[in-house]
Amino acid sequence: MNNTYEARLVQQETAVGAGVQILLLALLGTAIGMGPAGWLTGLAFAVATWAVLSRALHRTRPRSFGPANRVTLGRATLVGGVTALVADSYQDSPPVTLFVGLTAVALILDGVDGKVARATGTSTPLGARFDMEVDAFLILVLSVYVSMSQGPWVLLIGAMRYGFVAAARVWNWLNAPLPPSMARKTVAALQGILLLVAASGYLPHTVTFGVVALALSTLVWSFGRDVLWLWRTHRADQAAVGELLELEFVAVEREREPEAVAS
């Protein structure tokens, strides 16, 4: 009975997050007169986040939602607001201060939830995955917005992580765990900052182009390095398995030799 009660409380927190998302959309709609595209996209984001997170919580059944996940959920709410502004920008450009402010707070909180998880001893695979998905979606949304002024090539920044996930479904060796890397974390953090600088419109067009090109080049380097490491590790594992099978085969053949001689 107590476990059912705890599970109900955890699910209620995701519903509260969806409610806060709708409240933020209402505030944005009142402030800037957001059109149907922004409303529909923001509502779709809220429903999708609630559904996916609820399903994940039902599958893992944590005892509590946890303080770090609350921070990540708050960040997801801000990302939902940014997503609505980007969708609405196809009709009217959003106020720069509002857009930059929401995105900046979401990026700042990216460094908070992990620290909260470690400080409270509540780190979980679900929390890490939730954090990663919110980060990836924010980068995708920012790349969509910047691509309006810089060209479709910017979409490669947002799509690269999803392309990697899709490729891992075909080549299973891409699913192997990667070693910790400060360079990888730094490059990932830089993507949001550089895209936000580009999206702000404060810089000349040529400088903005250079900023986005820097973001893409560092991301390509980071992904390329990780894929190369995974490939080499995969080949080394295959070679080790091949050698083991060969040794077993030789051992079996040696055991058979005395039997052949005796017969």
TrEMBL record:
<dbReference type="InterPro" id="IPR043130">
    <property type="entry name" value="CDP-OH_PTrfase_TM_dom"/>
</dbReference>
<dbReference type="Pfam" id="PF01066">
    <property type="entry name" value="CDP-OH_P_transf"/>
</dbReference>
<dbReference type="GO" id="GO:0016780">
    <property type="term" value="F:phosphotransferase activity, for other substituted phosphate groups"/>
</dbReference>
<feature type="transmembrane region" description="Helical">
    <location>
        <begin position="209"/>
        <end position="228"/>
    </location>
</feature>
<protein>
    <submittedName>
        <fullName>Integral membrane protein</fullName>
    </submittedName>
</protein>
<keyword id="KW-0808">Transferase</keyword>
<dbReference type="GO" id="GO:0016020">
    <property type="term" value="C:membrane"/>
</dbReference>
<keyword id="KW-0812">Transmembrane</keyword>
<keyword id="KW-0472">Membrane</keyword>
<dbReference type="GO" id="GO:0008654">
    <property type="term" value="P:phospholipid biosynthetic process"/>
</dbReference>
<comment type="similarity">
    <text>Belongs to the CDP-alcohol phosphatidyltransferase class-I family.</text>
</comment>
<dbReference type="InterPro" id="IPR000462">
    <property type="entry name" value="CDP-OH_P_trans"/>
</dbReference>
<dbReference type="InterPro" id="IPR048254">
    <property type="entry name" value="CDP_ALCOHOL_P_TRANSF_CS"/>
</dbReference>
<keyword id="KW-1133">Transmembrane helix</keyword>
<feature type="transmembrane region" description="Helical">
    <location>
        <begin position="20"/>
        <end position="53"/>
    </location>
</feature>
